[in-house]
Specification:
The complex is a heterodimer.
Chain A (H helix, E strand, L loop, with lengths): L2 H10 L7 H17 L2 H45 L2 H10 L4 E7 L2 E6 L11 E6 L4 E6 L4 E4 L2 E7 L5 E4 L4 E3 L2 E4 L5 E6 L6
Chain B lengths: L3 H12 L3 H23 L2 H17 L10 H14 L5 H13 L6 H4 L4 H12 L2 H12 L4 H8 L3 H25 L4
Helix pairs in contact in B: 1-2, 2-3, 2-4, 3-4, 4-9, 5-7, 7-10, 8-9, 8-10, 9-10
Classes of the chains: A alpha+beta, B mainly alpha.
């Protein structure tokens, strides 16, 4: 079949004819609809779906942003609260008596740092967070421990008055006061409630 | 069909909200628009609805017609847009097309009368085409537009129209070849 044969076949197909009455009444039907469908309605009918879609998309974007933000916050809060949860710490200390040097939460997850021997004295747990602008690492540890946290070796010390000192290769920090630092570090530390096993 | 000056007057009066003048416009183009909407839908009832919809849209959008193309081409574009946006009656369209495609002899009462077998086969084949290919075929074959005019009516490039026509023709030849062989005198 060539194109002209196809054209002929297509053109032979007729459209059902409208009755003369219908044809005569059709223009009047159209204008009758124009009377009860004023221009403003049509314009708004054209614009409303676009406006609705636009507003819907904006609402979705805002919702997605807040959900993401809320989730991040929740995850961070969950991690932090886990490390500040006395029950969790107590269970870990009870499971590994005198061996827990620290519980570290960083980008790799939650890790328990254990001593080879039962030589870690029971003392007040200390909560420490170190952020370098890209990563944050949080840990619960005890005075006198030296831990690797966020690719840094950190020694954690505290005295009887509750003062906490963190010492690393290139920083020295004491209760909010940076004594010596590389400028990028943001450090927080506090004393947690004593754990009674 | 009215001469160009008379048509321009009617359009100008219609733009000012004169419904009587617009009735003349509708009368001039109702057959053309009915033909397009019927071939796009395969349903007399839906074609009538879409024809009305086309003229109502045209009336409200008349200000956007600046006379850069023929009014008939502009009206075709309005009709094609109405047909391609024929979403409200999607289930009805699917039903109509399924019946056409499934039974070429036609079981639809609204279409069955006065349609010969060739007409039914052709409409069934048109219904099987994707809507945009169908639109390109209708404008180029039935409305005898060249590809540039069809492109303006469909709001796409000439190359796109050419490709749609080429693809649609290949399909229609395959589907309609038995009809051609079976026709007397061929």
């Amino acid at each position: 079949m060539n194109d002209s044969e196809l054209n002929r076949l297509l053109k032979e197909a007729k459209v059902p004819e409208q009755s003369p009455e219908f044809r005569a009444q059709f223009p009047r039907r159209v204008t009758a609809r124009l009377h009860w469908k004023p221009a403003a309605t049509v314009v708004s009918a054209h614009w409303f779906p676009r406006l609705a879609w636009g507003l819907g998309l904006v609402a979705c974007a805002i919702l997605a942003f807040f959900l993401g933000h809320w989730r991040e916050q929740n995850e961070a809060m969950a991690k932090n609260s886990l490390l500040q949860n006395e029950k969790v710490i107590k269970e870990m200390l009870a499971t590994f008596p005198n061996r827990v040097r620290g519980i570290v939460q960083d980008e790799h997850g939650l890790n328990i740092v254990l001593s080879d021997q039962e030589n870690v004295p029971v003392s007040t747990p200390l909560w420490v967070q170190i952020c370098d602008g890209r990563h944050c690492a949080t840990m619960v540890t005890f005075s006198g421990q030296e831990l690797r946290i966020g690719r840094r070796d950190v020694t954690v010390l505290s005295d009887a008055s509750g003062k906490i000192i963190l010492a690393g290769d290139n920083f020295l920090w004491s209760n909010g006061e940076v004594l010596l630092a590389d400028g990028k570090l943001k450090i927080e530390a506090k004393t947690l409630a004593p754990v009674v096993l | 069909m009215a001469d160009v000056d008379q048509e321009s007057n009617w359009l100008e009066q219609s733009r000012r909200g004169d419904h009587a003048a617009f009735e003349n416009v509708v009368q001039s183009y109702q057959t053309m628009i009915h033909s397009i909407t019927y071939r796009m839908t395969g349903s007399v009832a839906d074609a009538e609805d879409l024809s009305q919809e086309t003229f109502i849209r045209a009336f409200h959008q008349l200000r956007s017609f600046r006379g850069e193309s023929k009014f008939s081409s502009w009206l075709c574009r309005v009709a094609m847009n109405a047909c391609l946006n024929w979403r409200q009656r999607e289930s009805r369209r699917a039903e109509v097309h399924e019946q056409w495609a499934g039974d070429n002899l036609g079981t639809l009462q609204e279409n069955a009368e006065a349609l010969d077998e060739n007409t039914r086969r052709v409409q069934a084949a048109l219904n099987r085409l994707p809507a945009k290919q169908r639109a390109a075929m209708i404008l180029t074959v039935y409305e005898e537009m060249n590809h540039a005019e069809a492109a303006r009516a469909l709001g796409c490039s000439e190359a796109t129209v050419s490709w749609r026509v080429f693809t649609a023709r290949a399909k229609l030849k395959r589907w309609l070849a038995p009809a051609l062989r079976g026709s007397p005198g061929r």
